[in-house]
Amino acid sequence: MTVITFIFFILVLLFSLKYAWWAPSIDKNETRIMMYHMISDQLANSKKSGLRVSPNMFEQHLEYFSNNGWTFIKMSEIEEYDNSEKVVAITFDDGYLDNYTQAYPLLKKYNACATLYLVVDRHDNDWSIKKNPKHNKGILAKEKKLSDDQIQEMILSGVFELGGHTISHPYLPDLTFNEKFDEINNCKDVLEKKFNTKVHSFAYPFGIYEDEDIKIVSNSDFNSAVSTNEGIASLKSIYDLKRIKASGKDNFFAFKIRVLKGFRGYI
Fold first, then answer.
1. Which residues partner with 96 through β-bridges?
2. How many CB atoms lie within 10 A of CB 84?
3. What is the C-alpha separation between 187 and 151, in angstroms, rounded?
4. CB proximity list for 188: less than 8 A, separation 6 or greater
5. Of 137, 29, 122, 31, residue with least CA distance to 74
6. Where are the domains of the chain?
7. Range in 75-84, 112-121, 198-207 with the lowest mean pLDDT
């Protein structure tokens, strides 16, 4: 084997591991739940963040779904579309301002809809340090968040619905049972009263949860809950639904791989 042949073999191997193009696609009658955070260009002079999907890339995602016969649904509708072909739920976590300035107009343009998992106490809250104190850079605290008026407009438009994401975005393993209950149960009550709307679904902070947390959610009158575990959702686990990660580090080819297979690759 020549050096060139060996290098070519390594490159093909790395490509195949990064983009699992050879893995079987999941049936399109299995619901896709997309997970987004920010619709924003990357920050200058900062490490590229998977949380920031550019507006241009987000539009490409919506155009792909729209042009290929996918039906956009909200999480409150997920059980109505069980075993329906090509169903996708767009979800946003936390409550960043760009969900209004960037995502909202694009969703309207493509007649799409979305579920916003909103943190109640989101302003000046750098919740990343709750999971890892070393993440004390203040980036999330400085990131502009949605105002109540903007959220109300988004809901009244019919484009968005709200989901629960706790009061303060805590790291659930550090909390007592009563603290967990207050964070999970109270966020639903607060959001429903403040915005005069129904909150049907919940998202676990950081995607980290235990059986105890699932029981609290199921007993708090939520109809479903999403995780950050990658994959195609199975409605057999309605309080442990997988989502497809929309990453700002991905190109469009990687996005399509994720949609078809539930994940991008192994490296």
1. 145
2. 13
3. 15
4. 164, 199, 202, 220, 221, 222
5. 31
6. 26-261
7. 75-84
Question: E strands, the chain, where?
Answer: 32-36, 38-39, 52-53, 71-73, 87-94, 114-118, 160-164, 201-203, 224-230, 241-245
Q: Average pLDDT of 261-265?
A: 86
- Which pLDDT tens digit goes with each residue over 1-43? 687 776 776 776 777 778 887 788 888 888 999 999 999 999 8
Please, what is the angle between helix 148-156 and helix 177-195, to 10°?
70
* CB neighbourhood size of 33 (10 A): 24
Which 3 state secondary structure label does DSSP give 96?
Answer: strand
Look at the chain and count its residues: 267
> How much is the pTM?
0.94
Judged by DSSP in three states, 46 sits in coil
**43 or 66: whose pLDDT is higher?**
66
At 6 the pLDDT is 67
- Does position 124 have pLDDT exceeding 70, yes or no? yes
Which of 27, 113, 30 is CA-nearest to residue 72?
Answer: 113
By the 10 Å C-beta count (0-12 exposed, 13-18 middle, 19+ buried), 22 is classed as exposed
Taking residues 238-247, report their average pLDDT.
Answer: 96
Residue range 26-261 forms a domain whose CATH class is: alpha beta
Q: What does the buried/exposed string (b/e) look like for 126-137 if buried means 16 or more CB atoms within 10 Å of the residue's CB?
A: bbbbbbeeeeee
- The rounded distance, in Å, linking the Cα atoms of 193 and 250 is 38
